[in-house]
């Protein structure tokens, strides 16, 4: 892991803190973990995770604003997928870590 003497600028610090904020919520972790397998519609996510569609939509908006997920339109359906492989890698490492403790 490289760190050296590089100083972090305010924008970088903000992005890092917001990303960890996103990963601090169990609902968002469940959504990202599900999307790491394959893209899903809001309804599919809600059904898979047994959550209300409105809850899923709210969390997806949060994740989209941080550019952690993206979507494409198929007719009237929005299909969501992961948009940041770095963050997904960190999330998977954290899940692996938790499962081994």
TrEMBL record:
Q: Which residues form the HTH arsR-type domain?
A: 8-101
Stored InterPro entries:
ArsR-like_HTH (IPR011991), HTH_ArsR_DNA-bd_dom (IPR001845), Metal_resp_trans_reg (IPR051011), WH-like_DNA-bd_sf (IPR036388), WH_DNA-bd_sf (IPR036390)
A Gene Ontology molecular-function term?
A: DNA binding
Gene3D superfamilies attached here? Winged helix-like DNA-binding domain superfamily/Winged helix DNA-binding domain (1.10.10.10)
For whether the record's keyword set contains DNA damage, the answer is: no
- Which Pfam family, just one, is annotated for this protein? HTH_5
Keywords (alphabetical) are:
DNA-binding, Transcription, Transcription regulation
Q: What name does UniProt use for this protein?
A: Transcriptional regulator
What organism is recorded for this protein?
Answer: Niallia nealsonii
């Amino acid at each position: 892991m490289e760190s050296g003497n590089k100083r972090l600028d305010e924008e970088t610090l903000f992005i890092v803190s917001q990303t960890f904020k996103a990963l601090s919520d169990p609902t968002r972790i469940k959504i990202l973990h599900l999307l790491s397998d394959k893209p899903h519609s809001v309804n599919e996510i809600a059904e898979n995770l047994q959550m209300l569609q409105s809850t899923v939509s709210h969390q997806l908006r949060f994740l989209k604003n941080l550019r952690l997920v993206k979507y494409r339109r198929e007719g009237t359906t929005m299909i969501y997928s992961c948009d940041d492989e770095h963050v997904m890698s960190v999330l998977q490492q954290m899940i692996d870590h938790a499962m081994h403790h």
